[in-house]
């Protein structure tokens, strides 16, 4: 089988491409615009493989998407490409709406025109919004997005579903919880805290740090997507959770303990506007239908992730240069220290 992956140079997409090349006989065409989050260094392990091809381009470019699908004739599309960071979506919503909504539309149109046999849309638990404990979202839960990022993802989920209902495009939607692991851009909680701790810089905790996220090791997520690609039922939604809910402060404290740094580095700062308090997911449907289960426990996964960042200081230095510093100043410079 040949698959067209979008966003395969990002954190999760690149882990998926590396896994598919290593563990299956599939061919992979990777369409990626190489935004600040896309990094071909993440694909070094596969760049010379004859089953892999990279195409530099924008998923919003309808002519390019059309010509690419026509030329490559993929049997399936796995759609990762998105603007993925909530804080950036608050600072600047326009690129998020463009890529996450318009880009998904363009990919759906290409898939419809060329009758692609399967369209896996990679989405997020954020579309369910904040849930009171002990609720866990099943796939039937209402969409209740809070940020421009999650609203655009929720909108794209509905668009994908409409192509199934209206045009019979064989789509499947996945909704995963917070991923962590190697190659994660250091704007997200875990890699930001690890890299700041290494440098003895303050660890900025939003609000009281009691917001809860469910942590999923990136390879477990990718195995879940592969399971859905192979066995997911058309038109269905599958949650993919890590089954490990933790308040942010606990995560930050674990990072400090594992890096041997003091808790005095924690700096409470002004909260994220519209900050969702708690995400929680039930992955029972995916487990029941495909046999998938998350394999990595959080402590081992976090240790491995920290070890990867320790061994890849040059990768960190390169992605943190220039534009990253500008973003850091914009997002954190204006926040007050609280408490
Ligand atoms: P990322 O930001 O690390 O990577 C996004 C990739 O998409 C980059 O390679 C970027 O260059 C590419 N891209 C962005 N705009 C593009 C465009 N217009 N055309 C082509 N390529 C473009 O994101 P990630 O964390 O790897 O997330 C991948 C997907 O998984 C996203 O759809 C996200 O919503 C979803 N997701 C992420 C998480 C998480 O915890 N990170 C959890 C659940 C779902
Ligand atoms: O739940 C899945 C989602 O997880 C994905 O869809 C998104 O693409 C991904 O970015 C992630 O969204 P979050 O907003 O949950 O992740 P982030 O790493 O930005 O933040 C995790 C928690 O940590 C959140 O409650 C905000 C908090 N936080 C984050 C940063 C960057 C801080 O307290 N301080 C920080 O500096």
Quick synopsis:
The chain is α/β, with parallel strands linked by helices. It is built from 12 helices and 12 strands. The model has no long low-confidence stretch (mean pLDDT 97).
Overview of this structure, please?
The strands form 3 sheets. The protein has a 7-stranded parallel beta sheet with strand order 3-2-1-4-5-6-10, sandwiched between helices. The chain has a domain of 204 residues: NAD(P)-binding Rossmann-like Domain (Rossmann fold, 3-Layer(aba) Sandwich). The chain is 42% helix and 17% strand. It has 339 residues and is an alpha/beta fold. The mean pLDDT is 97. The chain starts with a strand and ends in a 7-residue tail after the last helix. The site of 2'deoxy-thymidine-5'-diphospho-alpha-D-glucose (DAU) has 19 residues, from helix 6 and strand 8.
Query: Which cofactor or ligand species appear?
Result: nicotinamide-adenine-dinucleotide, 2'deoxy-thymidine-5'-diphospho-alpha-D-glucose
Number of strands: 12
CATH superfamily of the domain at 2-180 and 216-240: NAD(P)-binding Rossmann-like Domain
Q: Could you say which overall geometry the principal axes of the C-alpha atoms support? A: globular
- Tell me about the biggest sheet? 7 strands, parallel
What series of H and E elements makes up the topology? Answer: EHEEHEHHEHEEHEEHEEHEHHHH
The CATH topology of the domain at 2-180 and 216-240 corresponds to Rossmann fold
Structural class estimated from helices and strands: alpha/beta
Number of helices: 12
Widest sheet, order of strands: 3-2-1-4-5-6-10
Rg for CA atoms: 19 Å
Mean pLDDT: 97
The parts where pLDDT drops under 50 for at least 5 residues are none
* Share in helix: 40-55%
Strand content: 15-25%
